[in-house]
Amino acid sequence: MSRGMRIAVGLLAAVCLYKIVVFFFQSVPQSQVRRTTPGALNSGKPAVTNTQKVHSRRQKTIRRAPAANPRVSQVTRGAKILPKPILPTPILPKPILPTPILPKPILPKPPTHEEAGQASPPPREKEAIPSSEIDLFGDKWIVITTIQYPTDAVRTMASQPGWKVVAVGDQKTPDDWDLENCVFLSVQRQATLGYKIHDFIPYKHYGRKNIGYLYAIQHGAKIIYDTDDDNELIVDSLADAFILDLDQKVTDMLVYDPVGQSHKDQQAQMVVNPYVHFGQPNMWPRGFPLSAIDPQNAVSYRYKKAGPEIRPYVQQGLANGDPDVDAIFRVTRKHSGAKIDLTFDRDAPPVTLPRGVMSPFNTQNTIIHEQAFWGLLVPVTTTFRVCDIWRGYWLQRVLWEVGGTLSFHTASVYQDRNEHVYFFDQVDEFPLYNSSKFFVNFLRDWVPPKGDLFSQIQDLSRKMEKQKLWKLGDVELMTAWLQDLTKLGYKPPVGNKAPMALQNNELSPLGDFQPKSLPSSLLKMPNIRQK
């Protein structure tokens, strides 16, 4: 046998011997193997075998742990036992049981108050809806702005039969403003109306009145009465002071006619002073060019009778008491500390301006018919004392393109103005003193482009901005205004141009009217308030 074979046989024999010895020790019961501890010998107690200790420990483990799976092998028995996962209890929906329908019990009808011999209780009053939460509809609307509770003047307006009132508030206006037959537009509600112009109108500005115009148009307006909350009506009805029905004959209306006078007088009468016609030749309205003031009152106006072609789409009423004059008049013509309280001629007939003739007018006692709603927009980039006058000038220029005219009517309101600081008013009115004449000449020279009325208005708006008569903000406001009108379904009028006084020979002469000269602040004569 070779050496390698002998080594292999030796190794095989050693392995077999090792297996036999291991098998022998595993087959011998462990209970026979006793080991005596030193403590057992000294105490006299029977010795405890290792087998008994192991068995005791196993019994404790069995008590604490769950029963072992008999299928688990001896290798896995010594492994760590993981806790059983806790699964969430599913939540089942409650079953919906049908509600039983029970028959209504038939109760005996209680006796009436008459049957019981009792007096009937008074009817319950319906809860009034606040003015800030209602919507009214009508064809005649009064539009005002206010920062105070309803005044007596506003209450009188709200009582006019057939008219609705919309009051446009500002940040200082009380939130609980309320009056019957009125709609109150708080600043919060103004933001919810969806008008594009809202984002171009600053707070604490008279231009917020534009939102009231759109609201009235949206809610059925055919006529808008433009006024303020301090103008007290002195007529029973607005129909007594203005022409509300344009189809009625206007035979009692006069027309300014500078034809036949000298060239100088014709030029002077391109801007007329309506106060002269109504008996106050010593006064002039705010916005009247200072260069056109006649210190000697030498300018005399000629008139002709109005024909059917005259369409007064815009009508300005005057105001007794303290009328709308500029700060220059108050400083130079009024006695220091004296209060202006005068009247206009109540018998003077209304007078209208033909094409080519202009006059300033405000937003304080004015009727605007539907055909001129496009011209209601008050600019917002000018000063407060300028905004409504500039509105009036550009409006009457565009009126010529649709066959409309501006007319003036005797006083129908009484105005008691608050005290003003005239120096601040002069600063605010400076563009009126400096630019009114230029503005009038610019408007007379403006040639509208071909196209519809809205495109012509936008052209005029842009050219006014180039001439620095207002700023870019008003050009953007004008665009938003025309878009809002279109969205509301407003359709501008399409008509013939207004008659030109210098070329009109169809009006019959009228020689029996001569303007009066009534007492004024300058003459130091007492004045009687017209009732």
Task: Explain how this protein is built.
The structure is a single chain. The chain is of the alpha/beta class and 531 residues long. It contains 15 helices and 11 strands. Strands 1, 2, 3, 4, 5, 6, 7, 8, 9, 10 and 11 form an 11-stranded mixed β-sheet that branches. It is elongated, with a radius of gyration of 49 Å. It starts with a helix and ends in a 44-residue tail after the last helix. Mean pLDDT is 81; it is low at 33-45, 70-77, 501-508 and 523-531.
Question: Which structural class fits the helix and strand makeup?
Answer: alpha/beta
Order of helices and strands: HHHHEHEEHHEEEHHEEHEEHEHHHH
Query: Largest sheet, described in full?
Result: 11 strands, mixed
Overall form? elongated
Q: Return Rg in Å.
A: 49 Å
Low-confidence segments = 33-45, 70-77, 501-508, 523-531
Secondary-structure topology with pairs:
Blueprint: H1 3-27, H2 38-43, H3 50-64, H4 74-77, E1 140-145, H5 152-158, E2 164-168, E3 182-185, H6 187-190, H7 209-218, E4 223-227, E5 231-233, E6 254-256, H8 263-268, H9 274-277, E7 303-305, E8 314-321, H10 327-332, E9 351-353, E10 365-369, H11 384-399, E11 406-415, H12 422-428, H13 430-445, H14 453-466, H15 472-487
Parallel strand pairs: 1-2, 1-4, 2-3, 6-9, 8-11
Antiparallel strand pairs: 4-10, 5-11, 6-7, 8-10, 9-11
Helix pairs in contact: 11-13, 14-15
How would you describe this structure in keywords?
single chain; 531 residues; alpha/beta; eleven-stranded mixed beta sheet; 15 helices; 29% helix; disordered C terminus
